[in-house]
Amino acid sequence: MNASRRHLRPSEPEAGTALAVLRRFRVVLRSVNRHLDETRRRSGLPSAQLWALAQIAATPGLRVCDLANALAIHQSTASNLLEALARDGLIHRRRSANDARVVQLQVTARGRRVMARAPRPLQGLLITALQRLTPAQLRRLDAALEPLVAALDHADRRQGFHPLD
Question: Which domain holds residue 80?
Fold first, then answer.
């Protein structure tokens, strides 16, 4: 059976497998959405801001580029998250004493109070679950998801650098 015919009319076992995978994606997406909603309700912050706050708390003096790498987001997105956190008094940005071009980040007392009332995991449900997988499982999942992303009609790979909030 050629690939184009297979995509037009899957066999019953293939259709059943596709539906089983769809159900698993629903569990993942709905679990993540519930966590995002609970995070916003309890902390008052979008999940991405909370994750950024937790990263800064775990690494006082963190730089903007390091935060962007830790959250797998674009540096401009990290800057926007930090702007909101600073505006709300949850972080301080300080110039490095050694290099005035470097901005170092610190969580304020108010930021620590927000983190204390937020649901766990602070870094987000999906990344926490992914980190529980073995390296081999992660590689298999990555390889398996690539054809799915490629098959999506309106996939915008740039969205991989934006948080789920």
Answer: 11-161
